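Can't paste images in this forum, so I'm doing it all in text. The chain is below; anyone willing to post the predicted structure tokens underneath?
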Amino acid sequence: MNIQKMLAPHVQAVPPSGIRKYFDLINEMKDAISLGIGEPDFITPWSIREEGIYSLEKGYTNYSSNAGSIELRQEICRYMKRRFNLEYSHDKEVLVTVGGSEAIDLAIRVLVSPGDEVIIPEPSFVAYKGCTLFAGAVPVPLKLKAENQFRLKRADLEPLITPRTKLLIMAFPNNPTGAIMEYDDYVELVDFLRDKDIIILSDELYAELTYSGKHVSIANFDEMKDRTLVVNGLSKAFAMTGWRIGFVCGHRDIIEQMKKVHQYAIMCAPTTAQYAAIEALRNGDEEVKMMVAEYNRRRRFVINSLRKIGLDCFEPFGAFYVFPDIRKTGLTSDAFCERLLMTEKVLTVPGNAFGDCGEGFVRATYATSMENLMEAMKRIERFIRQL
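Text version of the structure:
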């Protein structure tokens, strides 16, 4: 049997993530500094870990309901109201998922059919395009521009709308750029979208990691709330990447269909992690504030350091990434990252891994210790001077 012929062509046609080869390389290096992995360097706060341990000790190891435990969904609703002024019903409008990534996949699968178009502002998280292609839909890239601080503008969106447009993905604060959207940025978009039959998938996993004002969601606009799915989770802000707890809030008709796919494919999110998540949402605000303050300190250091080195770098006000412009070096994004890794043992990620328009940029995370960041900046400066 030719196994290759048995595989689904539309899956084979999707290339693997452009990020992985760099992670494979750094695993074989000694004294390397990684500014590539997009996860907190903090460990999960003790009270949250303790709650997970306690649930195991008590023998709470059964399935929860498909949508997630009632207690967790209620806590999610309190959290969304307290932190972002968004109100949802725990029984019909919230689904607990295995990380935010599952929520994104579910949303795309239940909303699009083969041939439908999904507008994806880029540079962006690599999963959006892959999940769209796996669903048989057509990804339509929208180029976000450095001169606009990588914010989404109506003038860039409007020409891409067609009768086949079904879904618009928005991800702010943004991975990889660190860009945010403020209230005034949304006004012109809402004015344009309010009468369009388009669903918004708003990935807000980095909402807590906002360093200028308060996070604003497009779902905060009354006319957009029912047509917006808000994806969030505990991985980034609560340092719980390995626990795999995400959630999605939105119109009950969409959530019901997402729950249907979820119950067939997953059953429910891990029970132990759900107990930990309840504690995180109920009592974790102070821990989050502490981590955000430290990220902000590192953010300012890295931006200033890169500018002193001579790299142009717009100021990101969200997430935990910087996205410097490396075009003046004369290197492509891939060449810059590969040579920096091989000569100075510093891992960054090429901007074109997040979409073609990311060419000429690299992503670096400051979710690592200040000691590592200081050494990494010295190595990057040495690398630039030797070009």
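Residues 46-283 form a domain with the Aspartate Aminotransferase; domain 2 fold (CATH 3.40.640.10). The mean pLDDT is 96.
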